[in-house]
């Protein structure tokens, strides 16, 4: 049997008085609440159940993700001469990539409509590739290495890239089968890229 102290959520403070104990359960009179705290003797199962109820109550009453989402400012893109648009969400702290270097990056790829078509996070493994040698689409090489008005990313940085079709998959699209494409031809693509660093 566990003793649990729990804050009284709705009761005002009342001066302390005695309580009556019967068998293994403790009955609490209305005068036994002091400083918004109740002392209960509960079984382990009752304690876990009560904890779950309070967790759900807390999540419903104070949804933290909603508050954070509302306070996150929208990303304002800077457009380079090549048509690549970028927005640094977090400037890195490490070194920049060097052309031909093997690097690691996490990403989420989306169509302009917001539909996600790929994510390394979902696979639980970052993408490893050589930067600047054509192993990835042009917009990625330029968006990470920099050039033509785009500053290079630093390791630890997070950047959103908006690629025009000519820096993505162009007129051919990608993932096409039976007349439909995962990435339709001439698509503008959005990538949230996290440059982890060299592999």
In short:
The chain is 19% helix and 34% strand. It is α+β, with helices and mostly antiparallel strands and 199 residues long. The strands form four sheets. Strands 5, 6, 7, 8, 9, 10 and 13 form a seven-stranded antiparallel β-sheet that branches. Strands 1-4 form a two-stranded antiparallel ribbon.
SS class: alpha+beta
Q: What is the beta-strand fraction?
A: 25-35%
Name the average pLDDT: 77
Given as residue ranges, the uncertain stretches (5+ residues, pLDDT < 50) are 1-38, 52-71
The percent of residues in helical segments reads: 10-25%
Helix/strand order, N-terminal first: EEEEHHEEEEHEHEEEE
Q: Cα-atom Rg, whole angstroms?
A: 28 Å
- Could you give the distance between the termini? 52 Å
How many strands in all?
13
Main sheet makeup = 7 strands, antiparallel
Shape: globular
Count of DSSP-assigned helices: 4
Task: Describe this protein's structure.
- By secondary structure, the protein is α+β, with helices and mostly antiparallel strands.
- Helix content is 19%, strand content 34%.
- It is built from 4 helices and 13 strands.
- The chain has helices at 44-61, 64-71, 120-123, 138-145, and strands spanning 2-7, 20-22, 25-27, 37-42, 78-79, 85-90, 102-111, 116-119, 127-130, 158-163, 174-177, 180-183, 189-198.
- Strands 5, 6, 7, 8, 9, 10 and 13 form a 7-stranded antiparallel β-sheet that branches. It has a two-stranded antiparallel sheet with strand order 1-4. A two-stranded antiparallel sheet has the order 2-3.
- Strand 7 (102-111) and strand 8 (116-119) form a beta hairpin.
- It is globular.
- Residues 1-38 and 52-71 have low confidence and may be disordered.
């Amino acid at each position: 049997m566990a003793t649990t102290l729990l804050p009284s959520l709705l009761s005002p403070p009342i001066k302390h008085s005695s309580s009556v104990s019967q068998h293994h359960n403790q009955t609490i009179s209305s005068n036994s609440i002091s400083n918004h705290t109740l002392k209960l003797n509960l079984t382990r199962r009752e304690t876990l159940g009560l904890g779950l109820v309070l967790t759900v109550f807390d999540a419903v009453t104070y949804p933290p993700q909603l508050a954070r989402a509302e306070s996150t400012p929208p990303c304002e893109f800077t457009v380079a001469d090549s048509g690549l648009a970028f927005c640094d969400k977090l400037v890195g702290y490490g070194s920049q990539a060097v052309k031909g270097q093997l690097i690691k990056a996490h990403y989420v790829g989306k169509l302009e409509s917001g539909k996600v078509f790929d994510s390394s996070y979902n696979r639980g493994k970052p993408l490893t590739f050589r930067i600047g040698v054509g192993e990835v689409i042009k917009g990625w090489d330029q968006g990470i290495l920099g050039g033509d008005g785009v500053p290079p990313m630093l390791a630890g940085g997070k950047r959103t890239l908006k690629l025009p079709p000519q820096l993505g998959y162009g007129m051919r699209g990608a993932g096409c089968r039976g007349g439909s494409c995962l990435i339709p031809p001439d698509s503008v693509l959005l990538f949230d890229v996290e440059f982890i660093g060299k592999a």
